[in-house]
């Protein structure tokens, strides 16, 4: 019996070595040594390979799946549409400026150009009316301004002067008069109480003031040079000694940063040239506050 057991064990060993096959698993599932002395791993369980979440699961993808696109509507606020802002130049800007002037927020003649002065006027209007003060005109600002104003007339869109004319002095309401206001800094050429033409003017400095009162045009000179200051005085209409209404290139260039030596300076040469042709010697000149 012992010899038979030994023979059987030898036969099993030779069979394993000769065939190169791995030893069968032990009954407890643990790996048993193969005939070549190396451990043989127990076969993996199919159930383990197909466990949920395993990368080896058929049909699985190693990359994470993207979330489906959201179907919720965006809740971000929309930016109001800007209609006019600094740098805009068109006829709508001219209308804007005329309407702002109607409600006291713009104090110059409309120019159709949206610059820093227009932006400041718009911001002032917005602050007073409870609209976001951006200095630009959006749809809400424009609607509010339209509701508060009327359609500008031709004279409002293109007024005669940058400065608004004030109420004419009583002495200007009859006859032919150069009506000159120091308060509004304007000259109105009037015939029988009607304004025929108007223009901006400036006056003498504190040291050389323009005289006030009622005068008459003593004489005229289309081309003239001051004999005291040696400056050019085109379209001069003298009304009080050496003081005259005349065109001033300095006024045209520097505006109210300068002053005359007592004359009434005009900066609109074309407009003054037209009035010069109409004014006659003896016509009245009124300089008033």
General form: elongated
From the alpha carbons, calculate the radius of gyration and give it in angstroms.
49 Å
Number of helices: 8
- State the order of secondary-structure elements, H for helix, E for strand: HHEHHEHHEEEEEEEHEHE
Report the oligomer.
single chain
- Amount of beta strand: 15-25%
Largest sheet: 9 strands, mixed
Termini Cα gap: 149 Å
**Strand order across the largest sheet:** 6-11-3-4-5-10-9-8-7
List segments where confidence is low: pLDDT < 50 over at least 5 consecutive residues.
1-61
Helix proportion: 25-40%
* Total strands: 11
Structural class: alpha+beta
Write up this protein:
It is a single chain. The protein is α+β, with helices and mostly antiparallel strands and 289 residues long. Helices cover 27% and strands 18% of the residues. The chain has 8 helices and 11 strands. The strands form 2 sheets. A 9-stranded mixed sheet has the order 6-11-3-4-5-10-9-8-7. The chain has a two-stranded antiparallel ribbon with strand order 1-2. Strand 3 and strand 4 (186-191) form a beta hairpin. The longest helix has 18 residues, at 2-19. It is elongated and about 65 Å long. The chain starts with a helix and ends with a strand. Residues 1-61 have low confidence and may be disordered.
List keywords for this structure.
about 290 residues; alpha+beta; 9-stranded mixed sheet; two-stranded antiparallel ribbon; elongated; disordered N terminus
Could you outline the blueprint of secondary structure elements for this entry?
Elements: H1 2-19, H2 46-49, E1 82-84, H3 91-102, H4 116-129, E2 137-138, H5 139-148, H6 154-157, E3 176-181, E4 186-191, E5 194-202, E6 213-216, E7 219-221, E8 236-240, E9 243-247, H7 249-254, E10 264-266, H8 269-278, E11 284-288
Parallel strand pairs: 3-11, 9-10
Antiparallel strand pairs: 1-2, 3-4, 4-5, 5-10, 6-11, 7-8, 8-9
């Amino acid at each position: 019996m012992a010899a038979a057991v030994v023979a059987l064990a030898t036969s099993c060993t030779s069979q394993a070595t000769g065939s190169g096959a791995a030893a069968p698993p032990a009954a407890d599932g643990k790996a048993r040594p193969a005939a070549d002395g190396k451990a043989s791993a127990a076969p993996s369980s199919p159930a383990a390979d197909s466990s949920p979440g395993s990368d080896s699961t058929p049909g699985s993808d190693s990359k994470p799946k993207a979330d489906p696109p959201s179907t919720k509507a965006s809740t971000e606020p929309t930016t109001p549409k800007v209609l006019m802002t600094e740098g805009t130049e068109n006829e709508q800007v001219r209308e804007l400026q005329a309407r702002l002037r109607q409600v006291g927020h713009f104090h110059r003649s409309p120019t159709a150009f949206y610059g820093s002065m227009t932006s400041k006027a718009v911001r002032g209007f917005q602050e007073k009316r409870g609209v976001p003060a951006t200095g630009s005109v959006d749809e809400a600002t424009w609607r509010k301004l339209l509701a508060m104003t009327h359609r500008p007339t031709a004279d409002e869109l293109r007024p005669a002067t940058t400065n608004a004319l004030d109420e004419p002095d009583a002495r200007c309401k009859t006859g032919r008069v150069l009506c000159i206001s120091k308060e509004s800094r304007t000259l109105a050429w009037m015939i029988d109480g009607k304004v025929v033409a108007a223009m901006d003017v400036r006056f003498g400095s504190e040291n050389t003031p323009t005289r006030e009162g009622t005068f008459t045009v003593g004489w005229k000179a289309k081309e003239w040079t001051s004999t005291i200051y040696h400056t050019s005085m085109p379209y001069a209409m003298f009304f009080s000694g050496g003081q005259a209404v005349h065109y001033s290139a300095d006024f045209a260039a520097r505006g109210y940063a300068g002053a005359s030596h007592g004359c009434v300076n005009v900066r609109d040469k074309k407009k003054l040239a037209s009035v010069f042709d109409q004014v006659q010697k003896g016509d009245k000149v009124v300089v008033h506050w």
